[in-house]
């Protein structure tokens, strides 16, 4: 069968194999989709072997390898270049690798289509300015948010991201220390890695307006802290990144197989499993 994989470290609990097999069943496609644990030191060589020797057609890439995946590719989409990271690698003819970043598009699709949020004209707060934040910032802006405020613990990274977007009338930064004094937002996206690292964020309740939607790019345990804060702050909606995970998988699947899978049933079954 066709060979696919997800690379991460750790990777044992990845949902990607299950998601891709569910998509493949929708079309009667036979594929092998493995979870490959590679340390940062071994990543480049493991990817090389997968694509050059093991017949790999495509791979998803997750923490902590998204920057390394971007660096290893021969060609890069605009979305990957803007983020400086890749979540999808695809083998091209002549052994070259192309890097994509579908995380931003996946987030916007999950927010607007699955959760029915209208982003246009709304004020959004992006927490974080690392790889995950860079992958979604342009997409939020392009989806029409009125104002995008980027706040990062280290202000320089937030300023660099806002400068790179280059829309000073609609995209600005504030200091993390000022979070209690910057009013409320319609949409708050947690793109920090605090949850993944087992650290809690101390955020003021004043950030969440009564109609606010709060979204954590992580899912499962890593999102619990932020979503608990959102509920305690009185936010109207609180979502984890499970829908984004399924959507970015669908983008990869379409790149590799030329067919767009239905994400609703796959999302529902994972959601019910309580991930
Ligand atoms: P990822 O690929 O998950 O984005 P990253 O590029 O290392 O990982 O970025 C991690 C992000 O989470 C950064 O914005 C980081 O803030 P700093 O730039 O100040 O390091 C943020 N972050 C991590 N732990 C945090 C914490 N405990 N509180 C606030 N922000 C945190």
Q: How would you characterize this protein structure?
A:
The protein is α/β, with parallel strands linked by helices and 275 residues long. It folds into 2 domains: 2-101 and 245-272, Leucine Dehydrogenase, chain A, domain 1 (Rossmann fold, 3-Layer(aba) Sandwich); 104-240, Rossmann fold. Helices cover 39% and strands 23% of the residues. It contains 10 helices and 12 strands. The strands form 2 sheets. Strands 2-1-3-5-6-4 form a 6-stranded mixed β-sheet, sandwiched between helices. It has a 6-stranded parallel β-sheet with strand order 9-8-7-10-11-12, sandwiched between helices. A hairpin with a 5-residue loop joins strand 5 (88-91) and strand 6 (97-100). It is globular. The model has no long low-confidence stretch (mean pLDDT 96). Residues 128-133, 152-154, 157, 192-194, 197, 199, 201 line the site of 2'-monophosphoadenosine-5'-diphosphate (ATR). Involved in the biosynthesis of the chorismate, which leads to the biosynthesis of aromatic amino acids. Catalyzes the reversible NADPH linked reduction of 3-dehydroshikimate (DHSA) to yield shikimate (SA).
